Amino acid sequence: MIEELYLRNFRNYGEARLSFSSGINLFCGENGQGKTNLLEAIYLLGMLSSFRKAEAASMVKKGEETFCISGDFTGDGAYKLLLEKGPRGWEKISANGSLYRKKLDYLGKIRIVVFSPDEIELIQGSPEGRRRYIDRTCFNTSHHYLKQLKNYRRVLKQRNILLKKGIFRGEEFGTWTERLALAGAKIVKERAALIEKLNQKLSEGHPFLGTDSIKLRYVGTCTGDEMDVSQGLLDKLTSSSHVERCRRTTVSGPHRDDIEISVNGTVAKAFSSRGEMRSVLLALKTAETALYDDIWGESPLILLDDVASELDIGRRSALISFLREKGNQVLMTTTEAENIPLFGNKEDTLFRVSEGKIIH
Amino acid sequence: MGFFAKPIAQLIGELSKFPGIGEKTATRLAFHILRSSREDAESLAGTILAVKEKIRLCSKCFNITDEDPCRICKDTRRQQDVLCVVEGPQDVAVIERTGEFRGGYHILHGVLSPINGIGPDDLRMKSLVRRVADRDVREVIVATNPKVEGEATALYIAKLLKPFGVKVTRLAQGLPMGGELEYFDAATVSAAIEGRRDI
User: Fold this and answer.
1) What is the β-pairing status of strands A214-219 and A330-334?
2) Given Cys at both, which of A100, A206, B129, B174 links A283, Cβ 3.0 to 4.6 Å?
3) Is the peptide bond before A127 cis (omega within 30 degrees of 0)?
4) d(CA A23, CA B185)
5) Contacts of B187 in chain A (CB under 8 A)
6) Could you tell me the fold of the domain covering B77-170?
7) pTM of the predicted model, to two decimals?
8) Separation between Cα atoms, residue A28 and residue A31, nearest integer Å
9) A331 domain-assigned
């Protein structure tokens, strides 16, 4: 859990220090006062990127050059994480006083699950968003995944450069194609394994969609074990050679795959109302939470951005009692504290947020 | 750098072109040279020039050398039927230090990397094929770095040498000596699991 957060010149905050409790931490205030910025800062500490679609450069307070965020986390290990970002990028990425030059080595210390209004894109939006979600979740379950993904992307980039130059045959090109198939198969294997685990969790039931069954399916060029996928990718790359020749880029592989979300056998995108999509998302996110519980033996941090505007009172209650039961630490925003059912236990804390200041 | 007299400013400028040397370090080095004796400075200048004048590539293995063929290629006590392919001359030094390998080398001077505009023709690939074709080479050990480009280069070499029926091997990947399992990253451990062997 996160015990303390310190901000300097981050978004609309000049300086702020917050101490959290182990239950629900509620940030309450009008729109545009800086509630979501607090969630964003915490997410940034864990993931070095925002869950909002924003570049970290724009997160510096107006008129300032650098921002600083630090946080104290306990759980699996005790971490004091500290970030500083200036006009030229990250100036300091550190954990427990040690500086990290590579983001890859820093990442993975804490696990965070977010539920925010933007997340609906996961169902409605392009495959890219779903791939990003699945990649992030893969990383959170096994850290070497990111390295494999970086390898794949590097091979892909190398091969695409050859295609751009009009080289699409010969030993050199064939070598990069083979390497791409090998690297791609590792990605597909990890993603497929993750989806199987999420499906397992989804089938164990969730309090959000009654008896409806939610299922994920990996929609890729090929499936099977690593060897099969590698061979399948190689065949696919060979057979789509004429398309690649026209488009001068690699047209198949994990970077083009998708994840299909279906409810009772129907693809969610096609039929769901906004309300239903929310429920599907909640089910998915709680499955993700349960998965981290299993793997790390520690509940992830839950960030809920403005769920009151997104979920009806019944679903809100179901979500909060679910999280309470699991013992997750929750940080959430709302405009009205009354909108949050079951709030006010002794392990809960209310923060009033106004114009980038915390009023206790 | 307007604070310094022109010759010293120029020296700082030259030194800061070195990899890993910033302006501050370059200034320190320049003042060190300034303070050193005339003999030391002449010796330094002479050594730098000698490197450019005397060092060339071995016509057989393309290692840097001051005699052609190089000492390793000339050494008849070494195994003539095993070749170790490396990216650069520095890698030869590392492998030699182990004393484990007593064959010949072939230095590619780079790895395949379309991003950097490096293809097979920019590396010493044709000469490698020629060496394997001309001589009775039994095994080629590919010791390129275990990175994306090094792996691709290794695969390319394996394909290239396939028609000659020569055994092509790759250096093993896995755990470093003297380490403790719990401190290694997952990628290293998973490579070690993949490359496990019978005992």
Assistant:
1) unpaired
2) A206
3) no
4) 33
5) 144, 147-148
6) Dna Topoisomerase Vi A Subunit; Chain: A, domain 2 (3.40.1360)
7) 0.87
8) 9
9) yes
Domain boundaries, chain B: 6-54, 77-170
- Whether B129 contacts chain A with CB within 8 A: no
Interval A154-182: pLDDT, tens: 999 999 999 999 999 899 999 999 999 99
Q: Does A19 touch chain B (CB under 8 A)?
A: no
For chain A, say whether B20 makes contact (Cβ under 8 Å): no
Q: How far, in Å, CA of A228 to CA of A185, rounded?
A: 8
**Structure confidence by residue, pLDDT tens digits, B6-44:** 999 999 999 999 999 999 999 999 999 999 999 999 999
Give me the amino acid identity at A46.
G
pLDDT at res. A240: 92
pLDDT at A23: 94
| A143 touching B (Cβ < 8 Å) | yes
8 Å CB contact of A175 and B159? yes
φ, ψ at A214 (rounded to 5°): -105, 135
pLDDT band at A55 (very low <50, low <70, confident <90, very high): low
Q: What percent of chain B has pLDDT over 90?
A: 81
Residue with tokens 């510096």: A60
Cβ of B114 and A176 within 8 Å? yes
String of DSSP letters for A164-205: HTT--SHHHHHHHHHHHHHHHHHHHHHHHHHHHHHHHHHHT-
